[in-house]
Specification:
Strand content: 5-15%
CATH topology of the largest domain: Rossmann fold
Family: Belongs to the site-specific recombinase resolvase family.
CATH architecture of the largest domain: 3-Layer(aba) Sandwich
Order of helices and strands: EHEHEHHEEHHHH
Pfam families: HTH_7, Resolvase
Number of strands: 5
CATH class of the largest domain: Alpha Beta
Shape: globular
InterPro entries: Homeodomain-like_sf (IPR009057), Recombinase_CS (IPR006118), Resolv_N (IPR006119), Resolvase-like_N_sf (IPR036162), Resolvase_HTH_dom (IPR006120), SSR_resolvase (IPR050639)
Keywords: DNA integration, DNA recombination, DNA-binding
Number of domains: 2
Organism: Mesorhizobium vachelliae
Length: 186
């Protein structure tokens, strides 16, 4: 029986260290981590690796439920997949496990709360952006990708997949940047 930790943050400028330290302290022999949005399972290759690796009796450990996912359906599907493999899911804060029936109920409620919280965050963000636009102070979000590097790599003959790997973004982002640079619409 292995304890496998999974840590996730949404953006590259966020820090994984606190989660990693908690998972190590809990005795996780293997810890996989990634910097990707939890809004869906798309692009979460480390999570997919963990799910492939799980064996009967293993335990998937996360520090908080929202590290596993922000959508109730996704979280419940992940828990179901773990159970189909005979594995358990444990959340450290608050401490809940799928080893018992009560854990299932609590995780379902926590998943719904995480999804609702995500909606509230997006709504507040949207309201704040609209107010900043009305006040004339909105400058847009912080650019995390060097757009000049993307276009220069393309000019050097690199393809979108290679550019995405070199810059650390998705291929779709590369396409968007290049289309924006070339004055096209996707």
């Amino acid at each position: 029986m292995a304890r496998i930790g999974y840590a996730r943050v949404s953006t590259t400028d966020q820090d994984l260290e606190t989660q990693l330290a908690k998972l190590k302290a809990e005795g996780c022999e293997v810890i996989r981590s990634e910097k990707v949005s939890g809004g869906s399972r798309d692009g979460r290759t480390e999570l997919a690796t963990v799910l492939d690796f799980l064996r009967p009796g293993d335990e998937l450990v996360v520090t908080r439920l929202d590290r596993l996912g922000r959508d109730t359906r996704d979280v419940l599907n992940l828990i179901y997949e773990c159970e189909q493999k005979g594995a358990f899911v444990t959340v450290l804060d608050p401490h809940v496990s799928t080893r018992g029936e009560m854990g299932h109920i609590v995780l379902t409620v926590l998943g719904m709360v995480a999804q609702m919280e995500r909606r509230f965050i997006k709504e507040r963000q949207r309201d704040g952006i609209e107010q900043a636009k009305r006040d004339g102070v909105y400058k847009g979000g912080k650019q995390r990708i060097d757009r000049g590097k993307v276009t220069s790599l393309r000019d050097e003959g690199q393809g979108p997949s290679q550019i995405a790997k070199l810059v650390g973004c998705s291929r779709m982002q590369v396409y968007r940047i290049l289309a924006e640079h070339d004055g096209q619409r996707l």
